[in-house]
């Protein structure tokens, strides 16, 4: 019962805000001038298809924003076009925030759904004890030390045109204190470097010859 009551209250509030927004819009567009009396409760209720209580609440909102003026024993009159414009601007910004809020909620919902599916998939692998092993390369790695007196020292990989001359790929350079994986063409060779290559036996043989000839 509580849920139905809250839903009805929410619907009533929405109608009230809709009426207030429409009246403010008429004032902002100059359809109602400052000092002009707006129609009575029953006429407005008939126009918008709502109860007089909804109209009363809508007028109360506009009065609180300084858009209209309500005096006892007198008809409600337009107070400020400027305030009507401010109220409409406020409503539009509020709607933007509400839309952004709902968008974020939807993104969060989708994230939770994807996260749940990911966890289910991981559980599937764990339960079946599936292990994934990397595919072995058809070509073994081969290490070629650079001679201390090699003319290769100081040159870059790009200058050597290694692949063009040997059809072998440099997959790493072992230096004294680190190993550089997939070195770029601008990396310079230094004394003590070890070139790690991959390729066919013939290509590796050509690589060794090239380095020793330099």
From TrEMBL:
Presence of keyword DNA-binding: yes
Keywords: DNA-binding, Transcription, Transcription regulation
Gene3D superfamilies per record: Regulator of K+ conductance, C-terminal domain (3.30.70.1450), Winged helix-like DNA-binding domain superfamily/Winged helix DNA-binding domain (1.10.10.10)
InterPro entries named in the record: AAE_transporter (IPR050144), RCK_C (IPR006037), RCK_C_sf (IPR036721), Tscrpt_reg_HTH_GntR (IPR000524), WH-like_DNA-bd_sf (IPR036388), WH_DNA-bd_sf (IPR036390)
One term of GO molecular function: DNA binding
Pfam families in alphabetical order: GntR, TrkA_C
Domain HTH gntR-type: 13-81
One GO biological process term: potassium ion transport
PROSITE patterns, A to Z: HTH_GNTR (PS50949), RCK_C (PS51202)
Transcription regulation found in the keyword field: yes
Start and end residues of each RCK C-terminal domain: 127-213
Record protein name field: TrkA C-terminal domain protein
Source organism of the structure: Pseudoramibacter alactolyticus ATCC 23263
């Amino acid at each position: 019962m509580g849920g139905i009551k809250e839903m009805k209250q929410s619907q009533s509030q929405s109608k009230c805000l809709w009426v207030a927004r429409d009246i403010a819009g008429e004032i902002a567009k100059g359809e109602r001038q400052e000092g002009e009396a707006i129609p009575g409760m029953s006429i407005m209720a008939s126009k918008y298809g709502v109860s007089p209580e909804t109209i009363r609440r809508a007028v109360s909102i506009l009065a609180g924003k300084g858009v209209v003026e309500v005096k006892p024993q007198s008809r409600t009159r337009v107070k400020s076009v400027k305030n009507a414009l401010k109220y409409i601007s406020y409503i539009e910004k509020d709607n933007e925030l509400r839309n952004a809020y709902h968008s974020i909620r939807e993104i969060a919902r989708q994230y939770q759904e994807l996260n749940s599916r990911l966890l289910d998939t991981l559980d599937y692998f764990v339960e079946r004890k599936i292990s994934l092993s990397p595919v072995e390369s058809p070509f073994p790695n081969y290490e070629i030390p650079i001679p201390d007196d090699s003319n290769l020292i100081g040159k870059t990989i790009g200058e050597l045109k290694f692949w063009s001359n040997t059809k072998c790929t440099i997959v790493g350079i072992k230096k004294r204190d680190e190993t550089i994986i997939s070195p770029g063409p601008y990396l310079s060779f230094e004394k003590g470097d070890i070139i790690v290559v991959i390729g066919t036996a013939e290509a590796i043989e050509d690589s060794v010859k090239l380095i020793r000839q330099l």
